[in-house]
Amino acid sequence: MLRRLLALLVPIAFLITASLAVPLGAVTAQRQTQEMYVDRLNDAGRFASLGSTALRTGRVEGLRGELERYEDLYGARVAVVDPSGRPVLASSPDAARAARGQEEAHRALGGFRPAPPTAVWPWSTEDLVIAEPIGRDSGVEGAVLISAPTGELRERILGSWALLGALSMVPLGVLSAVAWPLSRWVLRPVRRLDEATAAISEGDLSVRADRVGGPPELRRLAASFNAMVDAVERALHRQRAFVSDASHQLRNPLASLRLAVENLEPHVSGEEARQAHADAVEEAKAMHRLLNSLTAATRMESFRASEPVELDEVLATRLTRWRALAEVEGIGLETRVPEGLRALAPPGGLGSVLDELMSNAIRLSGGGRIRLSASAGDGEADAGADGDRGDGARGKGSVVLHVADDGTGLTPEERQKALQRFWRGPRHQNVEGTGLGLAICADLVESSGGSLRLLPGLPRPDGGFGLDVEVRLPKA
């Protein structure tokens, strides 16, 4: 962030300095050009005065000597032309040739002094041409042309520009030097606020933003941020305390109620009464399971951050139990998990998520086969909708797990609703469960930066597909 701010401030400082230096350089070039123009214009006026006398009297030798000495001294070529534009006197043959056809000479012979040049730029190689009429109005007898080389003038302008550029570097250097500590002072609270938000997003609500240093606006922002985190932390603590207290207060009365209902069994007679008693016992058990699920959900949400785990180690501690549970239900369990996969486990543990998914597949699928597969995001094949099609993990940097079965599955509409809390499929209303398992698993996976999706699973013998739960986790 500091480098980005400096990359923004330094060019702005350069543009501000350039916006001041460029017009000043142009003014400098114009001023020096005007100085040279005025000097040569005065010389042209003196030569015009001498030329008027020389042309009337015919004594031109003295004037020719003046023109030659002038060219030797200043390097400027001088020529005197008659009203037809023909050179009659010149400081050198080059001056006579240069005077022929000059536009400035025609304007001067018409009684007009050519407009002064705006500026001579260092990249321009043309001479500075000055024309002065001899005589005025209808009495123009000729004109004096001075063609002055501008090499020395261009060198002076370049020198002035170099000095101006060197002086411009002083404020630019000062601005650049001040921008570094100023940017650090401004961005230090922003950086610390960013670190605090990152820690809080991982679940650490004990972190607070630093309110020391920086502009007053950022200090107030840090104070408001800390107040907001305090309020959120208090609210979470109150929520968890309420759930904990409620579960503690409800557990004993609920257990007593269940025991009392079960103890009524010897005193119940009649088929309808025994059925009502069985329903009451089952409802008490369902309430007890729901209370346990709510307590577990609150406990899971209290976990703070993800942690890297070896997928092999997680499966090694659970595969035996899963196979035993599947055998009891007459279900075959197949695994396709390569070695060496590491992923960021959701808060609460990847094992808990897989336990819930395998439990759902064993209890609720109604199929005869379950496949647990995993792959890295490098195009390795994993379970697809047809059981044979390779559907490689999309994109690098992820680990994809599939718990797929060939059971009754869910319709597309049911798959969209199945991740909602307390939702249960129409075929599973009388099966033990609370409808919280998948929703809690999805929340845990998303909290670690992953995703959980429900897809068509393995093909059934009678047509159709079972259910495939895809868990995508960041690669550790």
Automatic annotation (TrEMBL):
It catalyses: ATP + protein L-histidine = ADP + protein N-phospho-L-histidine. Residues 245-476 form the Histidine kinase domain. Its main location: membrane. GO terms for molecular function: kinase activity. This is histidine kinase. Residues 373-396 are annotated as: Disordered. It is found in: Cell membrane. Keywords: Kinase, Membrane, Phosphoprotein, Transferase, Transmembrane, Transmembrane helix, Two-component regulatory system. The chain crosses the membrane at residues 161-182. Residues 184-237 form the HAMP domain. Its EC number is 2.7.13.3. It is an enzyme of class 2 (transferase). InterPro entries: HAMP_dom, HATPase_C_sf, HATPase_dom, His_kinase_dom, HisK_dim/P_dom, HisK_dim/P_sf, Sig_transdc_His_kin-like_C, TCS_sensor_his_kinase. Pfam families: HAMP, HATPase_c, HisKA.
